[in-house]
Amino acid sequence: MDTANSLDADRVVRAPFPTNPEDFDADTRISFDKTADTYILEDEGGEEWEWLATASKWTAVVRKTSRIHPVLSPLRQATLACGWRDTL
Asked: For residue 35, what are the domain limits?
């Protein structure tokens, strides 16, 4: 089996994103987030994109995780020991 072809078979084909806000209502992947006052697009692979009106382009949404890494750096340990929890 050709490795390159098997990887391509797993890849989701993504339809082009509209770049004119007048076309957003016609695209079922797009919704408007009233709290953020922006458009959100969820592509075929489940990835979310946010419309940057000032740049007229879509940018991938980066979600912060709430999971804390179990290993703390020495600086982080010292910061927590001093009570400076809101700085790092």
From this structure: 16-63
Which tokens belong to 49?
């994109």
- pLDDT for 87 equals 43
- Is there a domain that residue 29 lies in? yes
Q: Is residue 41 part of a domain?
A: yes
Higher pLDDT residue, 80 or 51? Answer: 51
Distance CA 27, CA 51 (A): 13
**What sign has the CA pseudo-torsion 23, 27, 30, 34?**
positive
Beginning with the edge strand found earlier in the chain, give each strand of the sheet holding 48-52 in spatial order.
Answer: 30-33, 38-42, 48-52, 57-60
Q: Is residue 46 part of a domain?
A: yes
Look at residue 59 and tell me if it is in a domain. Answer: yes
Q: What pTM was estimated for this model as a whole?
A: 0.60
How many residues appear in the chain?
88
